């Protein structure tokens, strides 16, 4: 059987890792795929000398690779929205299968891309787009296909997890750890996508679509970053038996689907609360299987290349299969996607961690608890820290029971308007992740 010819778009970190692993493990990969997989062409602006390009025709024109009639599979590893979108759509129009690690592209333009691929009878595979080398998409789309997915929660951005781990373990400030993450190459010069949750929201959008059979809806994903988390919050959470993680949460309810990324308190006994450093993990609750946890490297050259090549092998295995019998892009048949609504954030129900600075005088706590009570909010636990010597401001930390977000919004607004409260109330959502 003739070899499958692959065109790589991008030979950076992931593209270089893909080329190297394909070359190093060529024989093993051929045994698994049933035929040889060979990278014949690649496009890159800067050629890394550490990348094995033996036998590869390297150029700087990605469209020339996409339009080459000899290539069977296009692997898009450029990233970003454009020109990646045009390249992928052109590859599909040319009748080529596509493999990509581009979560932003899939989250934003996946509906359009999958529709085009369906019409042309080609595959678009994107395992590497979420959680690097962890096969979470395959698990949701195939391994858990018998289940109704009830909810999933994931640490799906390694940079944010590294920052929060350092803050907790070493008592460091956010800005200090962010600078180190940039120096280590974990964070970009502009870290907005990582620390403000945009990267995680791209990934959560994809996971939710596969889990619940709904179209991709990135614009409806609530996104909140970690830049306002302080050392004090990390310490108080620990005292209360919790850890703060930047979590992506998707949950199906009777009213609709929750789709949200934000800092979250998790009980310290949960396995996912103990995922540290740059590692990723996704916890999935299915009605038949119960909870399952997927853990591993969420980024890096070879871990991500592992997922890219797994997709290439999948495409190679199914190239002779009737297109209507392939695994659907978003797990459900295209005409079976549902219009279940995505819930606005103010309709989400969760528990909360609250921290406020208050004047140290009688009656203050009574005023705060009265407001919470009027909004139907019950207190689960509380810590009150006495003022530092010579100061008149005390810290009050509360954990609440579950309540709808709009009730908490109103309570915080009223608490912040009190003369006895100094500054804003810090609010971090809390999830038990037990049902």
3D structure, described in words:
This protein has 435 residues and is α/β, with parallel strands linked by helices. It is 35% helix and 26% strand. It has helices at 13-24, 26-33, 62-66, 84-93, 103-120, 136-143, 158-170, 174-183, 192-195, 198-212, 231-239, 301-318, 364-374, 405-416; strands spanning 4-9, 37-43, 57-59, 73-76, 97-100, 124-125, 149-155, 222-223, 242-252, 257-267, 279-286, 290-297, 349-359, 379-385, 393-400, 403-404, 421-430. Strands 7, 8, 9, 10, 11, 12, 13, 14, 15, 16 and 17 form an eleven-stranded mixed sheet that branches. Strands 3-2-1-4-5-6 form a six-stranded parallel sheet, sandwiched between helices. The longest helix is centred in the first third of the chain and has 18 residues, at 103-120. The protein is elongated, with a radius of gyration of 24 Å. It starts with a strand and ends in a 5-residue tail after the last strand.
